[in-house]
Write a structure and sequence with these properties.
heterotetramer, A mainly alpha (219), B alpha/beta (385), C alpha/beta (287), D mainly alpha (233), C: 287 residues, alpha/beta, Rossmann fold, 2 domains, 6-stranded parallel β-sheet, 11 helices, 6 strands, 13% strand, D: 233 residues, mainly alpha, 6 helices, 0% strand, extended
């Protein structure tokens, strides 16, 4: 029972998922839509609550035990609490009863998203410009012939991207374009084909109950 | 022609999906001008769809600047449904009710405003179909490859010895966990930044099970931060199960698997924090990753941790190759749990994958030869409507 | 010389070099020739051939502040091109986030042209030469509906005017009067226009996209479904160059300026890669 | 110089500096930014989930069903799972609640029920999608045809040659991922060809991406120097 019921549900829903794309009939379509948009969506909402509970407990514990950097857990908990009140009771655009405006100053959750989360995310994302440089410095060493290939094609394409490349030799941008279109395409296709087989085998292993790690221990 | 054959078979297989045939009938609409009417007009239920759709086709009329498609319910008057340009020869009417018969005609429109109508098509009925015949090839391919894999699993079940070559990134797993144990530090396992709906995540969770068994045996703490709440719930069960399987259920730390945040960049920020503060000796980055892959891998590299990465997101592979010690590329991620567990049935499935690759290879070679030498287009098998 | 130390160089020195490489060119804007690729030239040619009396240029954007450095200069260059050739320009935003950005771009380019204009005919006048349709969610709806009636799906423009009351809208009804739609995007908007607008209404589609998206669109340029493309900041710089070479509008070339920072950043990375390899081989020889 | 007076711009600037300080090293400013990012992000997700899922998908149909039942009495219609007013939305809610059984010692195993449903449906869906969206078009694009050699159909000797190269690369890459045999003999040659393509392709991808990443940094510096300091236009 403890293994069989979840596995049976998994197989039944797995078959629905597997056949979804093949059945255009409105009955099948409607049923699948119900599964995706109502059933599984609501279930995932509960998973989020569980996850958030876990996060809050973890940081409360940190504060209680005064673990290293426990002060920052306050930042997390307080910002979560305040923003949640604004978002949950103020509404997505500040349309509910909780006030999200003082004079012409708005602080509804959408504004907070645009003015706090976007700058944070964009800056985090832009760290990549710097990390690309340090990773290239460390890894692009001609240690062996494979590394030479990696380094050589990266170097050529970088050169082809900037006007300097074309000035050194007008063929460089074309060669870099060619590398993107021929060897790059071939490698990606080969890998994608393999991945599809991996995905299929993984599905079969799960459906056949061979791969059971998701079942955990259950006790 | 060949394509037509496949369509026919597919149509027959999808019971009840037979389109309602319709033929040109009735006298041609009064033709007041020199503008000829559209010819060979057909109106049929659109095949392989969810119904409420009728496809009208015609052959162009010389001199027409456009066409107007008209529809009438049984016993009702004709109404314009749509007007299309002169280069169109078909139209899908998606505004019809299932099971109701309609009449159709197509009017050619002339430059001076003259019109010339085709004969009327009677009794066209739209019906929803149960099977999407355009995907017949896909269904066959899924079944074919699935049976290959299942056959190999059966062979493994009979106890056949199955050989799998070394995979460098996976050989290093033992050493990597051992290193953390020696240094008295933790192992960080990042199960990707995808959702449970992505197979790469599932593959990663399977690997997590094997690695958690090792950390349980060695008594090394493991830290699994999660981006997706559903993945978090599964990962927790996986780690807990692995500790039980390794005979150390008491050593399982409930806090070792935790949820962080759904926003991928916030997640990267937080995991960066874990990497630089807790300085784990070994970082595993397994599963689907997106742009944050290099943020994580490069921070990990700067802390001196040994890093084993693996992803099925091909665009991110170059960054892992550059920043990590070992990288599992694409399919190797899926092969990993079989490789690590050495369980015969799982290895059987891996053998099945290899057989699948041979099929791909053979198809590419034979298809190319047929096409180049004899001009036979093998690609039609692969069309999806 | 201690090559080992160079091999283990502090990452922060690399970060600093990158930062300076990007910031300094921004503080002291310069321009450099870039040389246009085939796809950029064909976009330029397609737009150049539009008959301004019959048809207009439509610019459809979905870029946000994050993709602004790559995409915004594209809109500006397109507008400059069309304004000099007296081709009316219609603009729309597919998502609300980018809508104000596009509005400020329109104002900037209008200002640029009108400060030089001497007569009413010379000037760029809102409603006659340019219309900003604003934003209608979700994106797929206007893309389809504009095939029937542009004023129908955008009853009011971005500034709240009745769209059908504007001068140019008297002769522009739907895609028939649109010479080309150039979708400027960090996503896949050009493909939406190809799939939904081109297949049904036959409108030409051009693309302007971030460098990351560009490989997805090249195949469509090959088949002609996309008439031409600006790929990333470099593509924008190429288009700016084509416009300036042909018309000398004297406008600010932001992408071309950005390419200086790009070149500097690329050179910093390449320089460090060379340095790393020199150090690597020298240290091996020492050992 | 034209310093911004918008509070939100200043907030954005402070947060930008918090994150960039990580490039120097981990420090209290970065820790502040990081924890704030996690906290606010989660709050945003929670609000979104409540206003876009819980209330419209679950609460509203249930509340309306209660209302209808109150005025017109309970009818069969109220048990239609896709009706705008129905009692059955409670079922997904109950299944979702099973996640919490992990806190109840003897019922822990029930956590697997929602997990199994989720995994089953989505793993099932992925397989045909990959065959349709990836395998079929990719294989088709890899087959070499007469057309690529034919100048009349937009091909030529060079494009034909390139198509053959792509085919070789794909075959080589597939050979590289062949696990059942040691890489010896012909397989070794195939795998070597494969890894050459992989390395050249990945190097190129890396080099190609630099421009997009630098653009992101330019975007942040534009924010700092234009929106905040007003020293560039």
């Amino acid at each position: 029972m403890r293994d069989k019921l979840p596995l049976a549900l998994l197989i039944i829903l797995g078959l629905f998922g597997l056949t979804d794309r093949f059945l255009p009939h409105p009955i099948a379509e409607g049923f699948n839509q119900y599964l995706r948009d109502t059933l599984l969506r609501i279930i995932s909402a509960f998973a989020l609550i569980l996850g958030l509970g876990n996060l809050i407990l973890r940081h409360t514990k940190k504060i209680q035990k005064k673990e290293e950097h426990w002060q920052h857990s306050w930042v997390l908990l307080l910002s979560f609490l305040v923003a949640s009140i604004i978002g949950v009771f103020g509404g997505v655009n500040g349309e509910l009863w909780f006030p999200t405006q003082v004079g012409s100053f708005h602080f509804d959750i959408t504004t907070i998203y645009n003015k706090v989360l976007i700058p944070l995310g964009a800056t985090m994302f832009s760290l990549l410009a710097f990390f690309m440089a340090s990773a290239a410095y460390r890894a692009f060493r001609a240690r062996n012939w494979l590394a030479v290939l990696l380094l050589g094609s990266a170097f050529l394409v970088m050169l082809g991207q900037v006007p300097l490349g074309a000035r050194i030799w007008s063929g460089i941008p074309e060669i870099s374009q060619w590398i993107m279109e021929v060897p790059n395409t071939a490698a990606k296709r080969g890998i994608e084909l393999g991945i599809t087989l991996g995905i299929l085998a993984t599905l079969l292993k799960i459906l056949a109950g061979i791969e059971r790690s998701w079942l955990g221990s259950g006790r | 022609m060949k394509r037509l054959g496949v369509l026919l078979v597919a149509t027959l297989l999808s019971l009840g999906a037979l389109p309602v045939g319709a033929q040109e009938g009735g006298g041609a609409f009064q033709n007041r001008t020199n503008l000829p009417p559209p010819t060979e007009v057909t109106a049929k239920d659109t095949p392989f769809d969810g119904g409420s759709n009728i496809t009208v086709t015609w052959q162009p009329a010389e001199g027409a600047i456009g066409y107007r498609i008209e529809r009438a319910p049984e016993g009702g008057d004709f109404e314009a449904v749509e007007a299309v340009g002169a280069d169109e020869t078909s139209f899908e009417d998606g505004d019809v009710q299932n099971g109701v018969p309609y009449r159709y005609r197509v009017m050619a429109l002339g430059e001076a405003g003259e019109e010339s109508g085709s004969g009327v098509i009677f009794g066209v009925v739209s019906r929803p179909q149960w099977f999407n015949g355009d995907l017949f090839g896909v269904a066959i391919a899924v079944l074919l490859f699935a049976s290959v894999v299942v056959w190999y699993i059966q062979r493994a079940r009979r106890g056949e010895e199955l050989f799998i070559r070394r995979i460098a990134g996976l050989e290093a797993v033992d050493e990597a966990v051992g290193r953390a144990t020696e240094m008295g530090k933790s192992v960080l396992y990042i199960p990707g930044t995808g959702q449970i709906s992505e197979m790469g995540t599932v593959a990663s969770l399977n690997i997590l099970g094997e690695i958690a068994k090792k950390t349980a045996e060695y008594g090394t703490p493991i830290n699994v931060p999660n981006r997706d709440p559903v993945v978090y719930t599964v990962a927790r069960e996986v780690v807990k199960g692995a500790y039980t399987a390794a005979g150390r259920p008491d050593a399982f730390q409930p806090d070792s698997v935790h949820f962080v945040v759904q926003n991928a960049l916030a997640y990267a920020a937080a995991v960066n924090g874990i990497m630089v503060r807790e300085k784990p000796a070994t970082n595993f980055l397994m599963g689907p990753f997106h742009a944050e892959s290099l943020i994580l891998a490069e921070t990990g590299a700067s802390t001196g941790a040994i890093q084993i990465a693996g992803t099925d997101q091909v665009p991110q592979l170059p960054f892992f190759i550059v920043a990590c010690d070992y990288t599992l590329m694409g399919e190797e991620l899926y092969a990993a749990s079989a490789y690590l567990s050495r369980e015969p049935l799982m290895l059987g499935a891996l053998k099945g994958e290899d057989a699948g690759k041979l099929v791909f290879l053979l198809f590419l070679v034979v298809g190319t030869l047929l096409s180049v030498l004899f001009g036979i287009d093998a690609g039609w098998i692969l069309s999806t409507g | 010389m201690n090559w080992e130390r160079l091999i283990q160089i502090d990452r922060r020195i690399i970060f600093l070099a990158m930062g300076l490489g990007i910031i300094i060119p921004m503080l002291f804007p310069m321009e450099m020739p870039v040389g246009a690729q085939r796809v950029t030239r064909s976009l330029f040619k397609t737009i150049d051939e539009i008959d301004g009396q019959e048809q207009c240029l439509m610019i459809s954007s979905d870029y946000t502040p994050q993709t602004e450095p790559e995409c915004h200069p594209m809109s500006l260059a397109l507008m400059r091109h069309a304004f000099t050739r007296r081709i009316p320009v219609l603009l729309n935003a597919l998502y609300v986030e980018g809508a104000p950005l596009l509005a400020s771009g329109i104002e900037d380019v209008m200002e640029e042209f009108n400060s030089r204009a001497t007569t009413h005919e010379d000037s760029i006048i809102y409603g006659r030469d340019v219309v900003y349709l604003g934003w209608q969610p979700p994106p797929i709806v206007p893309i389809l509906a504009m095939g029937e009636s542009i004023a129908g799906i955008y009853p009011d423009d971005y500034y709240g005017n009745r769209t059908d009351s504007l001068e140019v809208m008297q002769r522009i009804r739907n895609y028939d009067e649109v010479g080309i739609v150039v979708a400027i995007t960090g996503l896949s908007a050009p493909l939406w226009y190809v799939m939904f607008a081109q297949t049904k209404y036959g409108v030409k589609v051009g693309a302007g996209c971030t460098a990351v998206c560009a490989p997805d669109f090249y195949p469509y340029c090959g088949t002609g479904q996309i008439s031409g493309m600006m790929a990333g900041m470099k593509g924008a710089a190429e288009y700016e160059e084509l416009v300036e070479e042909t018309f000398q509008t004297g406008g600010r070339r932001k992408a071309t300026e950005g390419m200086v920072a790009q070149s500097a950043a690329h050179l910093v990375i390449m320089g460090f890669v060379i340095l790393g390899n020199i150090a690597y081989f020298a240290s091996r020889r020492q050992a | 110089m034209n310093l911004s007076t918008d509070i939100w711009v200043w907030v954005g600037v402070v947060l930008t500096f918090c994150i960039y300080s990580f490039l120097y090293r981990d420090n209290p400013l970065y820790r502040f930014g990081e924890h704030l990012f996690v906290g606010v992000s989660n709050a945003f997700t929670l609000s979104f989930m409540i206003h876009r899922i819980i209330i419209p998908v679950m609460w509203r149909p249930f509340a309306q069903a209660c209302q209808v039942a109150g005025s017109d009495g309970v009818s069969v219609d109220l048990f239609n799972p896709i009706a705008p007013a129905n009692f059955l939305v409670i079922i997904p809610g109950l299944v979702g609640c099973l996640y919490f059984t992990r806190f109840i010692p003897r019922m822990t195993w029930m956590v697997r029920i929602p997990i199994g449903m989720f995994m089953g449906y989505y793993t099932g869906r992925t397989v045909p999608a990959y065959f349709e969206g990836s395998v079929f078009p990719q294989m088709r694009g890899t087959l070499v045809t007469q057309a690529v050699f034919d100048p009349a159909q937009g091909g030529g000797v060079m494009s034909g040659l390139f198509a053959v190269l792509v085919l070789l690369g794909v075959i080589g890459t597939l050979a590289y991922f062949y696990f059942s045999k040691e890489h010896r003999g012909p397989l070794k040659w195939g795998a070597q060809v494969g890894i050459v393509f992989v390395m050249v392709g990945f190097g190129a991808s890396f080099g190609f991406t630099v421009m997009a990443r630098v653009s992101l940094a330019i975007g942040r510096f534009i924010f700092l120097m234009r929106d905040w300091l007003g020293i560039v236009t």
